[in-house]
From TrEMBL:
Signal peptide: none annotated. This is Tubulin-specific chaperone A. Pfam families: TBCA. Belongs to the TBCA family. GO terms for cellular component: cytosol; microtubule. One of its GO terms (molecular function) is beta-tubulin binding. It is found in: Cytoplasm, Cytoskeleton. InterPro entries: TBCA, TBCA_sf. Supercomplex made of cofactors A to E. Cofactors A and D function by capturing and stabilizing tubulin in a quasi-native conformation. Cofactor E binds to the cofactor D-tubulin complex; interaction with cofactor C then causes the release of tubulin polypeptides that are committed to the native state. GO terms for biological process: post-chaperonin tubulin folding pathway; tubulin complex assembly. Keywords: Chaperone, Cytoplasm, Cytoskeleton, Microtubule. Tubulin-folding protein; involved in the early step of the tubulin folding pathway.
Length: 109
């Protein structure tokens, strides 16, 4: 892998993979915190604690769109790089990048 274009492709693939995992993590955290908030309301917990939990949920909600934008931009960048280097289609880096693109694409919308 002495070609810098292959290294660049590998790095971009890693970025897309990391951002995708980050997005999934934020979505799971949001569901967990929403569940916690619902439980607190059902139990009739102190209004201050409920209010603080609502703030936690709002913070989670703010992180998801930001992560989606970064993921979309990284995905587009990787797709552009792959399209620009069709001569590398027989390399492991190219196949891995294509696999990651196909895995992430349905979740961009």
């Amino acid at each position: 892998m002495s070609d810098p274009r292959l290294r660049n492709l590998k790095v971009k693939t890693g970025v897309v993979r990391r951002l995708y995992k980050e997005k999934i993590s934020y979505e799971k955290e949001l569901e967990k915190e929403r569940g916690k908030l619902t439980g607190m309301r059902q139990k009739g917990e102190d209004e201050y604690r409920v209010k603080k939990q609502e703030e936690v949920v709002q913070e989670c909600l703010m992180m998801i769109p930001n992560c989606k934008i970064r993921l979309s931009n990284a995905w587009t960048d990787l797709k552009t790089s792959i399209d620009a280097e069709p001569g590398f289609s027989n390399t492991d880096e190219y196949r891995e990048a294509t696999k990651v693109l196909n895995e992430v694409e349905p979740n961009l919308r």
